[in-house]
Amino acid sequence: MLIDTHCHLNGYPPERVPEYVRNAVDAGVTRMVVIGSNLDDSRRAVDLADAYPGTLFAAVGVHPHDAETWDSEAKEVVSALAGRPGVVAIGEIGLDFYRLLSPRDRQIAAFEDQLELAAALDLPVVVHCRDAYDETLGMLERSEVRRHGGVLHCWSGSATDAQRTAGLGMMLGFGGIVTYDSARNVRDSLCSVPLENVVLETDSPYLAPVPFRGKRNEPAHTRIIAEAVAGLRGIGLEQLASITTANACRLYRLP
Q: Which strand ranges, in their side-by-side order, compose the sheet holding 29-35?
């Protein structure tokens, strides 16, 4: 049994979602967490969790790309959505200093406010970080994330960053990037932290693993990622699946 801890089924054509869910379950991926990145996206994630109870779960929040939309009204919407059945986290939130689609100060303010919201609601956070590891980890270290938990998704940092993240008691989300020849830092990170801090994700429809790189990703590919991670850690797929599933259940407080 595997869990895709981060996917964007809310970004697929609605008529295709049943096919992708069926493909995932057939591949042994029995639960998936659908991630919100803005208010509309978060609403769609909650609707999918409602439609597939026990199989799909939702996270709700505002991505750093949309940080300029974060205000008191957005906070009320996310707070209300967070109380819906099947919602297991606040996210994805964080910092992205690579594209800077929102100014840095707005990103920092939105991230800080959503960290505080997650603490108030006692929900884990799903954190996006690109070209901002020092700033992101600094903010997390000053937050209450040690109490309510979280995951730094789509891991792309260094082994030092990975150890710092694990030191917060957070999970690191490894996806298709771990299969790319160019991603030595990601593999080094994977091998530098305890397996108890590792979860699997696809970030689908993005970042498909080899041999599907460049094509549309889907939650069923969690199995390919699991096989790659198991090989890098020198353990069997069954053991890796057992550990990462337990980690995901602990992170998101799943049954």
A: 2-7, 29-35, 56-60, 87-96, 125-130, 150-152, 171-174, 198-200
Residues 192 and 210: their CA atoms lie apart, in Å, by 23
Q: How many domains does the chain have?
A: 1
DSSP for 145-174 reads HHHH-EEE-S--S-HHHHHHHHHTT-EEEE
Signed CA dihedral, 157, 158, 162, 165: sign only: negative
- Pairing type for strands 171-174 and 56-60 reads unpaired
248 near 254, Cβ under 8 Å?
Answer: yes
3-state class (DSSP) for residue 240: helix
The verdict on pTM exceeding 0.85 is yes
Report the pLDDT value the prediction gives residue 77, as an integer from 0 to 100. Answer: 98
The CATH number of the domain holding residue 200 is: 3.20.20.140
pLDDT tens readout for residues 188-209: 999 999 999 999 999 999 999 9
**In the chain, helix, strand, coil percent, each to 5?**
50, 15, 30
Nearest to 8 by CA among 52, 56, 79: 56
Residue 255, pLDDT score: 87
Q: Hey, what are 14's tokens?
A: 């609605």
**Interatomic CA distance for residues 43 and 39, integer angstroms:** 6
Identify the domain containing residue 92 by its residue range.
Answer: 2-252
